[in-house]
Amino acid sequence: MHVQTSSVSEFFGFTSKQEILDASRHYWNPFKVDWWEGQSIPLVIGERSGYELIDIDGHRVIDVHLNGGTFNLGHRNTDLVQRLHAALELVDVGNHHFPSAGRAALSKALIESVPVPMSKVVFASSGGEAVDVAIKSARWATGRRKIVSVVNAYHGNTGLSMATGVPSNSEFFHSDQPQDFLQVAFNDIVGLRRVLEQGDVAAVIMETIPATSGFPMPTPGYLSAVADSAAENGALYIADEVQVGLGRTGCMWGFSKHGVTPDIIVTGKGLGGGLYPIAAAILNEAAAGWLLLDGMAHNGTFAGAELGCAVATEVLRITSNPETLGNVAKRAEQFAIGLELLRQKYPRLREIRQDGLVIGLRFAGEAGAVAVMRELYRQGVWAIVASYDLQVLQFKPGILLTAREADEILSILDSTLRELA
């Protein structure tokens, strides 16, 4: 199925890009519309396929933002579209109160995809909601309230997940809970141990590689020390794999490279293949204990929707395929070589942070990545600046990317840096 660029606007009843922008500003989110226009990135996505986006006005870009990994397998992946169409012939969202074939199949597939012992899966509609489930499960299991996250973390914008992030976000909505949510710097195991030794922490939550702070890499042994320290002090370890899981590091789950056994794993974004919103908290036996006593303590009407389960089981099948993970390894090596050549060629590029196809590029200047983001977009690549470190560009190529597409991305980055120089 091929959608013409103009037909997307027409399908929703608009006749021009400006009409869409005006309606978005008036009825949706004026701040976002104005901010992106101010950055000279007035993107309104029309046609989309694979890793290519075409603006309503015809401007083509290769997507290496992927909306945080939502489109790991590309936009409108043919296999996933076919799977969704086939499911629509049989099911709808279903009824969350009852067992279903879809939820049973996806729960089993998720448990089997994880290389550590896990017990149950609780579904959600978004990563933030799944983080809320993880926090509630940890509090139930430990009987404690305090949650430790890292400075400049982002785990979502729902009630509990918001409180784990930067204080300004939760304070904005008067939802901050400083007595229950604590933060330490990433890679600071001494600071973390000091907090955990107080003995009243329910869980430590962190992304295996924090995205919004620019993909700083965990130092060797850090994550295993986090997990060990949490266990020693009676706290659970929650691995947020919403962005870095599902094959992005070359393994199904990023934490598996660090020899750790999380108590809870959170997944989302790419799990729905960009076609259906679905997320999950994968719980070990202790964290899942509440499901034996009151399985209705947490409900979500659209959590684990059967259509989403159909797509997600296919996502897991494609992602776990050795050919897919092999492609990640090949493209990761291709980018490692190409990016290092660019770093040597352009002093503006100061640092390359990379694990598989999780890549952060740090540029000179207080907000050095912003200018690179703008020029890349103009030349045909869409990558986004890290929200909490404007020196770093989040650079996340798709896991099915071809060598030719990777070469084109590197060529455009070369041209961008040459232009800015």
How would you describe this structure in keywords?
15 strands; Aspartate Aminotransferase, domain 2; single chain; 421 residues; alpha/beta; 2 domains; Aspartate Aminotransferase, domain 1
What gap, in angstroms, lies between the N and C termini? 42 Å
Q: What name does the CATH topology of the largest domain carry?
A: Aspartate Aminotransferase, domain 2
**Shape summary:** globular
**CATH C-level label of the largest domain:** Alpha Beta
Strand order of the largest sheet: 4-10-9-8-7-5-6
Strand residue content? 15-25%
Concise structural overview:
By secondary structure, this protein is an alpha/beta fold. It has helices spanning 5-11, 17-27, 30-38, 78-88, 101-113, 127-142, 159-163, 167-172, 189-196, 222-232, 290-293, 306-320, 322-345, 368-379, 403-420, and strands spanning 45-49, 52-55, 60-63, 120-124, 146-150, 181-184, 201-207, 236-240, 264-267, 279-283, 349-355, 358-363, 381-382, 384-386, 389-395.
